[in-house]
Every structure is written in C-alpha cells, then in structure tokens.
Amino acid sequence: MQNKNSEDTRDAFYLTRWFACLPLLVMVVPAIALSLRGVLSADVMIAGGVAGLMLGSLFARRKKEYWGHVTRSLGDSTGLLVFALFLLVGIYGKLLGEARLAEGLIWLSGHLQVGPALFALFIYVACSVLGTAMGTSVGIVLIMTPVIYPAAVALGVHPVIAAGAILSGAATGDHFAPVSDTTIISSSTQHYKFQKRCAEVGEVVRARMIYVIPAFLISCALYFLAGSFSARPALETGSALISGASPRGLIMLLPMVVVICTALSGRSVFEALTYGCLSAIALGVGSGLLSWEQLFYIDGRELKGVITEGAVQNLPTIVLIVLMMGAYGVMRVHGVLDSLVNGIKRYTGDSARSTELSMVGIATLLNFLLVGLVARVTVVAGPIFNQLGQAQNLHPNRRANLLDGMANSFSFVIPWHVWPMLMLVTIGPLLEQYAFLSAPAPLDFLYSTFYPLAIWGVMLVAAVTGFGRTYESADSAQPVCEPALVTQSAFSDPDMRNAAVSAANSPKRSG
After folding, report:
1. String of b and e for 406-418 (b: at least 16 CB within 10 Å)?
2. What is the DSSP letter of 36?
C-alpha cells in the first residue's frame, strides 16, 4: 500500500515524474557533447547544473516544495564532506609542488645509472609515488612531463613508452592516494546501510591494497619489458638534463609518509591532511625549499601565495559536486533513482556477482561518455553504486573500491579523452625546444598506458570471482565517520528494513 507522501512525489511534476531527471540530464549531456569538440572545462557542467535545476522547476507543480528539496540536497553531508576535504587537499598538494618534490625524484633517477628498460620502470614508479603524495593526476602530467619526458627519450626510452609511463603513474597516484579527489568522492558517496555514516577514507585505502598491488606489479613488469624491447641509443642530452636537478626536494616525501600512515592507522583523513600540511611547511621552510613569503604575500589588493592558491584551486570541482548532489537529490526524493536502480537489477539479476558486474558495466560506459576529469565518473556513478550495493548488503568499502578502480581505467587511455589530449598539449612546446623529440599519436596511449588497463582487469576479475568481496552486517560496529552521513532510503520502509537485516546474516566474505 502506497502512502500519501509517495503519491505526492509521483504527482510532483506535470505530465510525468521523470522530469525529475531533467537537472541531471541538462548537467551531463551538454558536457558530453561539448567535450567531444574539445571543450573540457568543469564550468560547462556547473553552468548546466544551474540551468538544469531552474529548468526542472518549470515542470514542478509545487515550485516552493521543489526548491526546498533542491536546497536540502545542495546541503547534503556528502557534498559538505568533499568541500572540507578538498580545501585541505589543495593546500597540501600545492605545498609539495612548490617545494620541488618532482625535481628531487628526477635527480634520483640520474644517480641510479639505469638503462632504457629500468628508466621506463623508474618513470612509472616515480610518477606513481609523486601522484600518491600530491593526489593530483593533472599535476603529475604538468610537473613531470616537461622535464622527465625529454630526459627519458634522450636516454633511449621510446617516446610512446615514456609518455605512457608518465600518464600511467598519474593514474596510479590518483587511484591510490588518500587525498585524491576520486578516493574522497568514492568513499563519501558510499553509505552504510545499517549505520549512520559513510565509508571512511582510511578504511577504503587499506581495503584497496589487494587490488592496487597486483595492478601495480603488472604495470611494473610491462614497463620493464616494453622499455627493454623498444630501447633506442642514448644521447648526451639526457644525462645533462638529469644532472641539473637537485636532490633537496626528496625531503618532501616525508609529509607524504605522514599522510598515508596517519590515514591507514584509522585516523580521520582531516587529521592526516592537517599533519601533512604542517610537516610540509616545517620541512619546506626549514630546508629553504619554501619561504614564508611564498606561503602568504600581498599583490596589490589581493592576498596570494601557496596557502591561498592551494585553498581555492579546487573550488570548481567542489561546486560541481554540490550541484550534482542537488540534481541527484531531486531524483531521489521523487523515487526516480530507485526506479532506475530497480530497472538495472531486473536486467542483470539479483545476486552480488550480477550487481557488481552491473557496476563495472555502468562505470565503464561512463568512462567513454564523460570525457573529462576522472572525478566526473565517481560523482555520477557514486549514488547509483550506493543504491545497487546496499540492496545486496555489499560493504561500502567494497563499493567504493569498485567505483574508484573503474573510474581510473579507460578514462586515461581513450584517444578522445582529456588525458591523451593533455599529454600531447604538454609535449607540444617541448618539440620546438628539443629537436630529438617526437610526440605520440593519440591512439598510442591505448597500448602504452598500462595501469588503467591493469586495474580495469583486476576489478573485473574481482567482480566475477568474488575476490575481496565483503558484506555489511547489521550488527557490525565501527568508528563513526566525521561528519556522519545519513542514508535515508535504507530506513524509509520498516518491511524493507527488516528484510534487509535478515539478509545481512550471510557470510562476511564471498568468493
């Protein structure tokens, strides 16, 4: 028997309640269309989000009630959690970049005295380490490519392998880093079914090891083999480029260790980032890599510096996520999101394996459609994964890792995607500076960027075999996420809640 509130939500729009999808469609569809024409700015989705919410209101019967749902959804605790984290992440990443950590890694490569095979492997490992430290794949491409790409080619590494290793390292860091946008979003969008909280970042990263390590080792082996079989004669230019780097930046690996160890120890990621920022400032200023003037200075009537610029650099992403929460909120309140999820379940079966394979398929499709930064995949797919996974009592950590692993896959290798384009745009000016350089073709990234393909394969195998699959139990007791995130739909119907509690009495691990 339907209650009155259910009837009210179904009658909330003229003609059909499916107009609740309008805000999301107006936000996503133009972004896809424009991205295929080379327009990759997050501003497209932000403008579409605002326009979509306004357009949706035109079809709402009770407009005051509609905007009430929108404003409550914009203030969703998931969006507020991401907002707070991204402010700290921006400062942390900016500190490491300004303190020349990348230059320290390049210096280290020169003193290892390696040939093309080992140098290709070193590129991948170094970019992975730096990506894990900074949590920004864009930053890795922009920081490492201008220096390490010419040096690698001059030392005999094939240009296609060198470019692929840089991009692959960026993907690895973006996937594993506790402070990356995809880790934060994938964790915060996966709610516990029987507790009022979301997946904790530190717990998700710990649970991720069983997927990341195999994919990382596969990529290491492939880069060593590819670097060996495609090696070219070395040039004198390579040694000169590397010898000009300074080792001092290596000291900034310590803040990375602080953040990772603190997050993995079970403490809040906010606490981990606070310690990371403080240790980065102390080490940077103490070693002379940073000055107090770099942290804060006044330019005319504006306050600038590492702290200020780092705090605001993620604001477009934050606004994008908050608007997406608003669009999904409208769909959720009017039952449209539940209907979509139930439709997917009818076509894919009603088991943990079929549900996870549905997740893999959805995320893979979004990799091809959402041409832009990887965070878009996690933002769009996050609520869908949450709804599908809760129906099977899949643990939020498992759902978050499936989401993040798939998000960091084909997005990095599709020729028309932002990542190959970004690599080629970054390499372009270097061709005029170094006569011996050549640029890869967009299709080359499909067979030279190994980690995204490896992690996609690992996650697919995990979904098929049940490797690493865990379930949430109704009597599980774990520390509360800060801030606590409430999953309303899991408690909306007493009959559904009682059935879910009974279904939760299944083995903790399958496979």
Report:
1. bbbbbbbbbeebb
2. T
CA 329 to chain centre: 22
- Percent of the chain scoring above 70 in pLDDT: 76
* Distance between CA atoms of residues 403 and 182, nearest Å: 9
**Which of 128, 136, 93 minimizes the C-alpha distance to 277?**
93
Phi, psi of 392 (to 5 degrees): -105, 10
Higher pLDDT: 298 or 170? It is 170
497 compared with 182, residue with greater pLDDT: 182
Nearest to 189 by CA among 383, 341, 399, 360: 383
Residue 384: which of 360, 410, 413 has the closest Cα?
360
Instruction: Give me the sign of the Cα torsion angle 205, 208, 212, 213.
Output: positive
Residue where the block lists tokens 């800060």: 482
On average, the pLDDT of the chain sits at: 77
* CA 215/CA 457 separation, integer angstroms: 8
Amino acid at 436: F
- Residues 109-149 have pLDDT tens digits of 667 766 778 888 988 998 898 888 777 777 778 777 777 88
Instruction: Decide if 92 contacts 254 (C-beta within 8 A).
Output: no
Whole-number pLDDT of residue 232: 76
Residue 291 CA to residue 14 CA, distance in Å, equals 60
Q: Which of 378, 308, 425 is nearest to 40 (CA)?
A: 425
Tell me the residue length of the chain: 511
Q: Parallel, antiparallel, or unpaired for β 469-470 and 509-510?
A: antiparallel
